[in-house]
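INPUT
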Amino acid sequence: MKLFRSLGLKKHRNQLLAVLFWLLVWEVLVLSVDNELLLPSPASVLLTLLDLIQTLDFWQTILYSSLRIIFGCLLAISTGLVFAIGAYRFLWVKDLLALPVKIMETIPVACFIIIALIWLHPQNLSILVAYMMVLPIIYSNVLQGLKSRDEKLLQMARVFGVSTWKKIKAIYAPAVRPFFLSAVTVGISFGWKAGIATEIIANSNHSIGERLYEAKLYWMTKEQLAWAVVIILISIFYEKTARMIMRLLQPQSET
Amino acid sequence: MDIELREVTKRFGAKTVLDGVSISLSEGQVNCLMGPSGSGKSTIVNILLGLLPIDSGQVIGMKNRKIAAVFQEDRLIEHWDALKNVQLVCDKSLTKEDILREFQQVGLEEDVDLKDHRKPVSLYSGGMRRRVTIVRALLAQSDIVILDEPFKGLDDALKLQVIAYVKQKTAGKTLLVVTHDKEEAQQLGGNMIILQAAV
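OUTPUT
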């Protein structure tokens, strides 16, 4: 315990102990399997990862995958917002969107990828898949946020003749913000996972999915696990970045 | 032009809250609406504010009029400070200092001073919130001011101060104040409209 305190890690002591516990479990499994090809040790995966990060290809692969998937997510966030506002304002928009949103919510990612591959080039398929996976999350949450606005405050604004822009700022935005924030963080993480799955199935060029597929094909288990670690770390990074941006966008008076 | 409700009926399901009610508010004067609980005072307020449709009868003199109101509930933007709540409804020409001066007149200066005006109204006491709603209503541009039980939660000394402020700020405007309290109505002066409880 003194060690944590001296390293200034007291606050994260439990999390670090949990990570150490699971690494220990992994190590025990490695010892019982005793086959590096089936299950490499955490240390060898870490060494493989350290080798990978020294190559230009590693960073290019991450960049290409990220650009495609994040573009799909951002497109879904912006259109999801517009669709939700449209559905809140006009019932016919809500009715029109009900079926496609339901399909997007329920269709398994793999099923959608296989169907989309009939018509689309595998290279940019992850943009579409990330879009399709994130859109319903943003749409449903923002719509729910809009519906949760305080009707009495809207009546007050109507009586005083408050402008639409002020109404958005004072009444709608605070109602929508928590829904939007959780939708964006969940959506980005979900879109990232779906995007990588797409790259694996579609074998897109210069992608993390392609690297994972190659590693599987040639029984490079260490590389496979190293890429899995990279995927997890990037997912956490995007989630944290999204949270940080949302916090910055939040007016001081609401904090 | 006087404001009139002529033979107005309002039902909520099977319950008739207003049954052919007729009242008249004198233009440019203080009008106090009194009556026991359930007599339909707040229903009349909501009809005048255009928030409730009527089942039959006529509402005269409310078209194209600028209205300001204190509602039965405070209806403040909870995470905003008092200043921002007032700025939401009033003219841009009113400066921060102008508004803070108004707060001073209703005894809010200690809570809403220049240093501390960022405190959200959710942290205010009931009486303080009520005074913010009163300042908000009286600084908004309006021809008609409707106050639904505006002085609830205020102690007697403060009530006198706020009543004086309301009278000063609404001079020449049509003012409707809903109240249970005869003393409040007497202090405000003007016309008394007394509703009977619906049977």
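end of record. Chain A has eleven helices and no strands.
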